[in-house]
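hey so i finaly got around to running the thing on Carbonic anhydrase from Hyaloscypha bicolor E. pasting the sequence first so u can double check i didnt mess up the copy paste, my clipboard has been acting weird all day
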Amino acid sequence: MVTPIQENLVTKNKEYASSFTDGHLALPPAKKYAVVTCMDARIDPALAYGINLGDAHVIRNAGASAKDALRSLVISEQLLGTEEILLIKHTGCGMLTFKNEDAAGIVRKNLGEEAAAELGAFKGDFLPFPNLEGAVVEDVEFLKGSKLIPEKIKVSGWVYEVETGKVRGVI
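ok and heres what it spat out for the 3d tokens, dont ask me to read them lol
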């Protein structure tokens, strides 16, 4: 059974593909940078951050977590030549609203003990944070301190304001 979401995917993709002319773009990002940002549906990284197709790698996860994005960042810079990382968290992030125990409790309640046992796959750490700017600084310092991110890679941290659409530098 095709869902309305799947139907929308196919319909909108047909429209997109009918005028698509960028199949020639190279695999490595043309502007040699990667963006780590949140998966929040209120953020359109291409529009909000001025990213054209082929310019940059955009890595999205809950809370724009550097730890969660590390594997992709290593591939981006080691195999595909990126030279800069922009870490962009945002105001009103859901990761500010809970603690690990809260999320684990919800998983346990909704999915059962067997499912909760699988939380060990990521050590039960949902990577929440209580302070937005502090989390930006912590993630930038994590990347700068990682042996997997060479010193030559420029790393900066930002906050996107969902209320205004503006970005501001943190570190």
